[in-house]
Design goal:
331 residues; alpha/beta; ten-stranded parallel beta sheet; nine-stranded parallel beta sheet; 18% helix; flat
């Protein structure tokens, strides 16, 4: 399908600079785009590419100031990143959607499957599982007995929903397994990345609330809860009974200790280690253990000075020992 710059601008409420009849049929990154592609510029780090890109159309923010003319047709909008996302969603919606259960999938006779659900090959859906309308489950997903999946959920390949939580009690002979008797509940409009694991609860439920987006390779332990519209990048790990609020943003490889509560709208930077409850809405945390960014950067600024500080302290110790020795000789 081809679209002109004029058609695109009308759809997203933009303003065309250049050829209104310029046509595109695909998307591309600004540094790789060729003729017939539409791209976008929202990050100032990529501004230099706009002067050399071969893209037919570039979405840019209204406030972008050009140092010299460009060859591409521009569409100015309030937020180029949001607009390209909107266009990609429109394009994806036009593609044919798979529905039905692949003959190579296993679905228990006691499972309840909603309308317009897709279940990919080599997927396992256990006894008593409930899956809502419009959900898409890609190949090799495993959903253990009793778990509940809402409507319009996407679960990518290799994800495991409802495996046992990591519960063992030490005894004189080693460790005794604690039965994991709960389930996992995933509410509507959640997306779960490839090879992400969400463990069933010891008792009650592990809950992923509506609108949550989880990247690949995330571990959600037993009895955890993730609030509405929270997003997590890859390799995040949550220990048991962690409660994360709504609209939080969590960077890649961040980790959470068990039995803590994270307030709504908390931002947790990549590779942070959160070991205690957060203070309140909108808090930003980075580092391990995670602290306020100002405190973190002050501490990191001292790191470079540590070798010199160590040298100075060693010199002071030598001078002090020399003074003590001299005083002992004199007295």
């Amino acid at each position: 399908m081809q679209f002109t710059a004029k058609q695109i601008a009308e759809f997203i409420g933009g303003r065309v600079e250049g050829n209104e009849q310029a046509t595109v049929s695909t998307f591309a990154k600004i540094e790789e785009a060729t003729e017939g592609a539409i791209t976008f510029l929202s990050n100032p780090k990529y501004t230099s590419y706009i002067y050399d890109t071969k893209a037919s159309i570039v979405l840019v923010n209204d406030d972008l100031e050009l140092e010299h003319p460009v060859e591409s047709t521009l569409i100015r909008v309030a937020n180029a990143y949001e607009c390209v996302a909107k266009l990609m969603q429109m394009y994806a919606a036009s593609l044919p959607k798979k529905t039905g259960i692949d003959p190579l999938a296993f679905v228990s006779k006691t499972a309840e499957i909603g309308k317009d659900v897709y279940v990919g090959p080599f997927t396992y859906i256990g006894e008593g599982v409930k899956i809502g309308d419009g959900t898409r489950i890609f190949p090799n997903v495993t959903i253990y007995d009793g778990c509940q999946i809402g409507q319009n959920v996407t679960i990518h390949a290799g994800a495991v929903i409802g495996a046992d939580g990591f519960g063992f009690a030490p005894n004189t002979d080693g460790y005794e397994k604690i039965p994991q008797l709960g389930i996992v509940i995933i509410e509507d409009n959640v997306e779960i990345g490839a090879n992400t694991c969400i463990d069933r609860s010891t008792m009650g439920e592990t809950i992923i609330h509506k609108g949550v987006k989880l990247d690949n390779l995330i571990q959600v332990a037993h009895n955890c809860e993730i609030g509405e519209n929270t997003v997590m990048s890859a390799q995040v790990g949550m220990a048991g009974s962690t409660k994360i609020g709504a609209w939080c943003m969590v960077g890649g490889q961040a980790g959470f200790s068990g039995h803590i509560k994270i307030a709504d709208k908390t931002f947790v930077g990549a590779q942070s280690g959160v070991i205690s409850n957060t203070k309140g809405n909108g808090e930003q945390l980075i580092g391990a253990p995670a602290v306020n960014p100002k405190m973190y950067f002050k501490a990191r600024a001292l790191d470079a000075k540590l070798p010199e500080m160590y040298r100075q302290i060693a010199q002071l110790q030598r001078e002090l020992e020399a003074i003590k020795e001299k005083m002992s000789i004199e007295f």
